[in-house]
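Reminder to self: tokens first, then the designed residues, so the page reads top to bottom the way the pipeline ran.
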């Protein structure tokens, strides 16, 4: 989604300026056209040459450098921008922008652009927590600037505190989220479930499955990038928490049902990508089960069926992990669960499925249309599913 986007990256005079190189590099690798504007102070921390080499674009540092190529740049970049990101943002640039001052190329571009603006503050905690800085940030938020809040950590002074620039992944996630606002899922509420539920046996053991959560997380991120408001109900996974998504952690099938019941009522689409346990131990031992007998029998009972009782006028998308008769079995599940679309997964295929970054799926809708996709990344699968979802929403297909 970053491909062919023009991202103006404003870099200011913070010790965190070196992080701009990482941000620029990741954006450029994703196919974005990155136009860097540096303040004079920023050039004391990192050279324009570094950023020019990373982006393969000229770096603007001086408003009055009037070569043919750059002569109108103080408005040209503002107009070309799909998004303007100031990372790192000093207390100084935040104050200038809040006051409407335009005395260098970056502050001029900020005032001149109609593109969304993202600001990632980086400074000593006293500077950040100073009421003046805080008031300036409130002003920017009121003007629809998106602030990527700094974190707590080691600062340039050697002290530990609040003011450390947000992680690069967080800044890039925010850029994607902001760029997604005008996309085909703008204004839609999408609930995604992900991960494998864990059904407790005793205080230290559970019954689980091999779901990594990657497919569900990819769908949630793709939906966010296409402008949806996304809730992600997730069983335990070892994936980083996605940015700009309302994440609801759960553990068991029963916990997932409770969370889905709560959030799905208002949703336009429910996508059940989680591997929900079919059975749970009938009783959970209060203390750790001891290794005393040669065998142990666990009695299992059915877990609640999340889709069976849920009410609401939303589109339902399910997953079917199958090892044989994939299309026929998935079709049956589509009928049984009253889904609008089912994504059938061949779990015997070693190249896709559990844990991997790729997947090979077949999409089946209620009109009987069957689309077998090649082995592609989970993110690409996610976008294919969402293409179908957009088509179904446009057709007015909802609960059946
Ligand atoms: C070593 C050093 C590190 C600095 N780090 C920061 C910082 O992280 N955040 C900040 O707001 N200012 C920092 N400053 C102060 C700014 O560089 C100064 O306010 C400057 O005027 C900012 O200019 P600019 O906003 O035009 O880039 C630092 C200054 C020095 C000398």
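Designed residues (400 positions):
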């Amino acid at each position: 989604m970053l491909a062919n986007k023009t991202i103006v990256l404003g870099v200011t005079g913070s010790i965190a300026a070196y992080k701009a190189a990482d941000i620029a590099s990741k954006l450029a690798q994703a196919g974005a056209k990155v136009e860097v504007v540096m303040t004079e102070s920023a050039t004391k921390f990192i050279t324009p040459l570094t950023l020019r080499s990373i982006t393969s674009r000229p770096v603007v540092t001086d408003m009055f450098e009037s070569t043919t190529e750059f002569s109108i740049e103080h408005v040209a970049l503002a107009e070309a921008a799909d998004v303007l990101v100031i990372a790192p943002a000093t207390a100084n640039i935040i104050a200038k922008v809040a006051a409407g001052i335009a005395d260098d190329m970056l502050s001029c571009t900020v005032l001149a652009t109609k593109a969304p603006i993202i600001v990632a503050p980086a400074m000593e905690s006293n500077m950040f927590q100073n009421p003046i800085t805080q008031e300036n940030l409130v002003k920017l938020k009121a003007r629809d600037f998106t602030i990527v809040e700094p974190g707590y950590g080691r600062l340039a002074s050697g002290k530990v505190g609040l003011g450390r620039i947000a992680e690069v992944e967080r800044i890039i996630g925010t850029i994607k989220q902001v760029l997604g606002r005008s996309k085909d899922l703008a204004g839609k509420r999408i609930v995604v479930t992900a991960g494998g539920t864990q059904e407790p046996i005793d205080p230290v053991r559970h019954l689980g499955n091999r779901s990594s959560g990657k497919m569900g997380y990819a769908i949630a991120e793709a939906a966010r990038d296409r402008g949806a408001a996304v809730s992600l109900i997730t069983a335990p996974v070892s994936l980083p928490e996605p940015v700009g998504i309302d994440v609801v952690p759960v553990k068991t099938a029963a916990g997932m049902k409770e969370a889905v019941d709560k959030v799905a009522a208002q949703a336009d689409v429910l996508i059940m990508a989680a591997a929900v346990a079919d059975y749970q131990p009938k009783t959970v031992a209060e203390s750790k089960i001891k290794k005393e007998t040669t065998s142990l029998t666990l009695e299992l009972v059915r877990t609640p069926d999340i889709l069976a009782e849920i009410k609401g006028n939303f589109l339902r998308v399910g997953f079917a992990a199958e090892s044989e008769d994939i299309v026929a079995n998935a079709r049956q599940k589509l009928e049984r669960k009253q889904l609008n679309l089912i994504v059938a997964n061949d779990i015997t295929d070693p190249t896709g499925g559990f844990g991997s970054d790729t997947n090979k799926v077949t999409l089946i809708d209620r009109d009987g249309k069957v689309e077998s996709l090649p082995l592609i990344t989970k993110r690409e699968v996610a976008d294919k599913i969402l293409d179908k979802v957009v088509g179904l929403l446009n057709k007015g297909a909802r609960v059946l």
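The CA atoms of residues 108 and 170 lie 26 Å apart.
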